[in-house]
Amino acid sequence: MQIEFNTEELQEVQKHISKYPEKKAAIMPVLWMAQKKWGWLSLDVMRYVSQLLDLPLSHVEGVASFYTMYFKKPMGKYHVQVCTNVSCMLRKGDEIYKHVAEKLGIKHNECSEDGFYSLEEVECMGACGGAPVVVINEDFYENVDISKVDDLLTSLK
Ligand code: FES
To answer: What does DSSP say about strands 139-141 and 134-136: parallel, antiparallel, or unpaired?
Structure first.
């Protein structure tokens, strides 16, 4: 697989770089772009980002491994995040997580065999007012219950 952004994407990278006094400060949006394009951050992808931003590979690996939103292995087409932190747990977020894990037959940070779903138990998503919260890819679903989550998962098929 060719690891290279296209012309439009490279222009977007330049836009991110131009927002900061130093090139390296653009690392997070550029890693996010890379993850969206290739699905996860393989060593080759991180190497490409390090070349784009003139950074040591170790720096890129450090950032990618610090933030859980960056995938270091292939994840599902639909990445399901269930918050089990305090506000969500008090409103049954932990039961929702257990239910989803059982239903999908996968555990934290695992991907279904068909590559359709992956699951992550997450800390606070910053949406406590809508607890319990489930996030699928970049869409937030608040005030969910087991039945609503079942409907959501079914709607993805
Ligand atoms: S505790 Fe779940 S969103 Fe804050």
So the answer is: antiparallel
